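User: Please fill in residues for this 90-position structure.
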């Protein structure tokens, strides 16, 4: 019998926290043109955005390479996903 895999509470909480942090970062960066945030707040927003960008690129690379795709097609696929993330985030 196959038991259904239940989500782990710690993993779900970390994912929810990461999404909340990413949303907060997006709001800070989107409103930074009109609100004078301190430099620390802007630096934190940019740091979260860059970490998310790297995470998207690495997970796309690993996903594509695990299917047996070559180096250049995997690079193209990960860059495509990074581009989609940039368009969605910014």
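Assistant: Residues filled in for all 90 positions:
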């Amino acid at each position: 019998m196959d038991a259904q895999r239940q989500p782990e509470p710690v993993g779900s909480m970390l994912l929810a926290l990461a999404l909340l942090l990413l949303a907060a970062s997006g709001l800070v960066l989107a409103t930074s043109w009109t609100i004078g945030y301190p430099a620390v707040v802007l630096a934190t927003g940019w740091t979260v955005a860059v970490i998310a960008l790297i995470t998207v690129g690495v997970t796309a690379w690993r996903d594509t390479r695990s299917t047996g795709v070559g180096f250049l097609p995997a690079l193209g696929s990960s860059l495509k996903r990074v581009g989609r993330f940039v368009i969605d985030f910014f």
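For context: Residues 25 and 46 are 7 Å apart (CA to CA).
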